[in-house]
Amino acid sequence: MNISVLGTGSVGQALATKLVSLGHKVFMGTRNIENSLNKTEPDGWGNPAVGGWIKNNPEVQLCTYKEAVQKGNDLVVFAMNGNAAFDCLNAVGEDLLNGKTMIDISNPLDFSKGFPPSLTICNTDSLSEKIQTKYPKLKVVKSLNTMSNPVMVNPSLVSGDHSVFVSGNDETAKSQVVSLLNSFGWKNENIIELGDITTARGTEMMLPVWVRLFGKLQTPLFNFNVNIAK
Length: 230
Fold this sequence. Notes:
By secondary structure, the chain is an alpha/beta fold.
């Protein structure tokens, strides 16, 4: 497939690397190509800066947001901080987004008051719902937002069974995302389809728990597991 990955940070880099390894063509979207290519030093978290990363991953094409979706039109992956969602998607444009399946991996996290972050949307709404409402013909599927990016693309990093959630209104789009999850190594029995896009409220609100577990465990290599009594 031709896949657009919107976001150049560690999540976008992890997804792009995995997708390329699976034989997909990847077009990575950024706000300003020149500025991104000039970033060569690791960020404050130790993640590779996109300029240096692209140099070492020439099979990934760096584009503007709009161009990335134009070229990677089989699937869109939104892999940015959730609070940048509408600036990014508005730059792509509704006409181009219409009819596309988009995996929303983001969370509406606010780091303005330091760490741990708070949620800017919760309880009666979710970021995914807001995106779906603004772009009604975009097929939004929430998934992979409840774990760190290494686990997203390599679930075997966490031993035993553990869960990934899928939310969305369009059954065909959800099936497309489940197939992609399978290719990442996720077993069908560990993929929990929660229902329509309103169920993204629950998975987004899992992030405060995840953040505190990360602080306690001092490793991102963990995940939630839902065990069903037999």
